Amino acid sequence: MPSRSGGGAARRSFDAVRGVFTGETPLPAPTLRWGLLLVATGAVIAALVTLFVTGFDNNKIEAHSPASAGEPVVDKEFGTAVKGDCLSWSKPDHSDLVKVRCESKHMFEVAADIDMSKYPGKEFGPGSRFPDSLRLTELKEEHCVPAVQQYMGGKFDPRGRYIVGLMYPSPDGWQHGDRTLRCGLQYAASAGTPPSTGSAAEHDQSKVYGPGVCLGINQNLPTDPVDCSQVHAVEIVSTIDLGQRFQGGPPAKEEQDRFVEEECARTSAEYLGGPDVVRNKTLTLFFDFLDARSWLAGSRKLDCMVGKGADREGFAPITGSARGDILINGQAPQPPPNTGRSTPTPLPGAAPLPPQPR
To answer: Which domain covers residue 143, as residue numbers?
Structure first.
């Protein structure tokens, strides 16, 4: 499969996918593999936001800049944020950044504030050079990943709804002596910073969207939620809670498959208005599975979704909700001929690619 930006991260999630086909004739294995790209979305997003530091990115946002007599301290709210604080903003330049209660909508939850000036060496000393994007990425991995793990009590789901974020001083703040990094959590997205509500430490971290949500499409891959009237890759038909079926430790993949397969088939028929809708609209029903890391972090939910594999790789663009009329690649789908035979039991997807260490 050709490589793409973020492809390495995406491939690390390929082992987590299943597809359920409700057509009369199972599609060939190569088509089944298009489903492998779906739940890799979270990993792709994580790759895309490697330097997406709380929406600050490379914008020149003033951080807590120590000021001389008579000069104001710029962005005091950011400069005084500590562990457990939640931050929000609405302006594109983030100039209205404020601390808010975590029960309210917010963009970022601070897991740790780290004063790098206390570290030995000259890298963060007075007059030191502002770190480039590569070094900022390294600092996020070195300091923020373990800080978030500690903040979450060791229960952070790397495939869940949150990603590790980094807030750092602007170049001007750095020049004035600010060396404080703020590590934390934010919703995963391929663009922008979606607001979250409530503390991440108290939430089920499952990466689910809920019935009726459509995920946009970019380069044949699912992106962020969009209105289903817009072009999209997949539509969520239901959310399955595995906690209602499994207790204790992580259930085996095969046991999850059997349960989720049945639930996705049942709930998709309820959502779409009949058991033959998926087949008649030439769609495919996809589902994921929860690996041990996600399960031990407390995640219990999975989305069932419908989409259409593209000819080459990824997903075909769909317009309209699957509950009504849709267009696939701009054309109305043609139902396959009805031979009078009953629809067989849904089949699991193709064998996943070998798991790779994250």
So the answer is: 71-202
